[in-house]
Write a structure and sequence with these properties.
The structure is a single chain. With 184 residues, the protein is an alpha+beta fold. Helix content is 23%, strand content 33%. The strands form two sheets. A five-stranded antiparallel β-sheet has the order 2-3-4-5-6, with helices on both faces. It has a two-stranded parallel ribbon with strand order 1-7. The chain has a single domain (5-175), classed as Alpha-Beta Complex (Peptide Deformylase), CATH 3.90.45.10. The longest helix is centred in the C-terminal third of the chain and has 15 residues, at 154-168. A hairpin with a 5-residue loop joins strand 5 (99-117) and strand 6.
C-alpha cells in the first residue's frame, strides 16, 4: 500500500525516534509499504517518521542513481547508530520528500560508519562513502528528528522561510500524496 508522506511542519518529523524490537507488529508489511511509497514518490530514501511513525527505521536505494564510480546499494536500516563520520566536508544539493520543491546545499562528511540491524534483525557494522554515505546521513537525521533545512547556511534558511511557512500551511503540491499537520 502506498502511504501518504508527512509534510514539513508535523511534530513527528522533529522527534528522536524509538528503537523497535523484532516482534514489531506487521514489520514486513510496513517495510514493503515503505518501499512502495518511496518508489511512488521517486525517492531514494524514506524514514519511518516521514510516514508518521516515530521509530528507528529507514530504507535506502541508491542503485537507482546513475553513477559510474559507485554501484549503489539497497538496504533496510533498523535501530541504526552512527559510530563515526570522517573525511572532508562536501556540499551537495539535497531535497526531501517531506519538503517538496525545496532544495539546498548541505555540507556532510564524505564517509560514515554505522551499526544497524537489517529486516531480519541481524546486526551489521559498515562504512559507506560518497553519495551512499550522504543518503544514509540524510535518512539517519530523520530518525534523530533533524531535517536537511536545519543544516542549511543561515542566509539560505532565511531565504526559504516564506516557502517553508507556506508548506506548513499546506500550500504546496507534489506528485504523491502528502499529509499535512492540522493541530485542531
Amino acid at each position: 500500500m502506498i502511504l501518504p508522506i508527512i509534510a514539513y511542519g508535523h511534530p513527528v518529523l522533529k522527534k528522536v525516534c524509538s528503537e523497535i524490537e523484532s516482534d514489531y507488529a506487521e514489520l514486513p508489511k510496513l517495510i514493503a509499504d515503505m518501499w512502495k511509497t518511496m518508489y511512488n514518490a521517486k525517492g531514494i530514501g524514506l524514514a519511518a517518521p516521514q510516514i508518521g511513525l516515530p521509530i528507528r527505521l529507514f530504507l535506502v536505494d541508491t542503485i537507482q542513481l546513475e553513477r559510474d564510480d559507485e554501484p549503489g546499494f539497497k538496504q533496510v536500516f533498523i535501530n541504526a547508530e552512527v559510530l563515526k563520520e570522517e573525511g572532508e566536508f562536501w556540499a551537495y544539493e539535497e531535497g526531501c520528500l517531506s519538503i517538496p520543491k525545496i532544495v539546498g546545499d548541505v555540507e556532510r562528511q564524505e564517509q560514515i560508519t554505522i551499526r544497524y540491524q537489517d529486516e531480519n534483525f541481524k546486526t551489521h557494522e559498515k562504512t559507506f562513502e560518497g553519495m551512499d554515505a550522504r543518503v544514509i546521513q540524510h535518512e539517519y537525521d530523520h530518525i534523530e528528528g533533524v531535517l536537511f533545512t536545519q543544516k542549511l547556511k543561515p542566509l539560505k534558511r532565511r531565504l526559504l522561510g516564506r516557502k517553508l511557512d507556506q508548506l506548513k500551511k499546506g500550500k504546496t503540491s507534489a506528485d504523491y500524496k502528502l499529509k499535512f499537520y492540522n493541530p485542531k
